[in-house]
Amino acid sequence: MTEEDIELAQILWDYHRIDEELVKSDLILGLGSYDLRVANRCAELLQESWAPLCVFSGAQGNFTIGKWPKSEAEMFADRAVECGASPDQILIEPKATHTGENVQFTRALCEAKEIEVQSVILVAKPNMTRRGLSTMQQFWPEASVCFSYPDTHFLHSPAEGHSPEDVVSELVGDFQRIVEYPKLGYQAEQPVPEQAMTAFDELVKRGYTAHLMQ
Is the pLDDT of residue 66 over 80? Predict the structure, then answer.
C-alpha cells in the first residue's frame, strides 16, 4: 500500500466514522461483524450504565461464515459476558444478514418483548457507523441514535485475520453502498462530499475492489 493509497483511504475512513457525544439511552445495538472488539465495547458500555440492555444482531456474513461455530450475535454475546457484562442484560438476534435486517429485526424483537426504545447507542466498527446511521434513519427513524466503537484504525490495528488492504477494500465497498443503497430503499440518503467521492474513484482505479457490489 502506497502513501497515496493511505491518504485516500483515510479520507473514506473519516467519512464513514461518526464522532458524537455519547448519550445515555434505552438500548445498545451491537452490529455483528468479524471484529469481536465491538462486543468488548458493548460490554464496557453496559458496565458503565450507558444503557440497561444490549441486543447483538447478526447471522454469519461473508467474513465469518464457515469460520465461526455460531452466529455473529452469539459470538458477540459470549465475548461480552467474558468481558464482564451480565447475561441478563443481553438479547440475541441471530438471523440478520445485512445492516437493514440488523435494525429491522432488532426493532421487531424489542416490540415483541414490549421493550420501549426511544434512544439507541449503535456500536459497530468505526467504518460502519455512517451506514448504521443511514439504516436507522430508514428503518427506525423514531429512535434517536448516537454511536460508539472500539478504538481501532484501518492501518495500525485491523481485526485479526484482516490486513489494512482488506479494510481499505471494505471502506470502498461500503462507500459505494452509501451512494447506491438509498436508490433501492435500503438506507436513507447521506451527504457525499466531493473529496470522498474522488477518493473512492481513485481507490477503485487502484484495485481496491474486493468488496464492491456485484
Answer: no
Q: 212 Cβ partners below 8 Å, 6+ apart?
A: 172, 173, 176, 204
Q: How far apart are CA 24 and CA 191, in angstroms?
A: 27
Alpha-carbon 88 to chain mean position: 23
Cβ proximity of 34 and 63 under 8 Å: yes
pTM of the model: 0.93
Cα separation values, 173 from 71, 131, 138, 149, 168, Å: 23, 11, 20, 20, 9
Reading the block at residue 1, the C-alpha cell is 500500500
Element (H, E) at 147: strand 144-148
14 close to 200: Cβ distance less than 8 angstroms: no
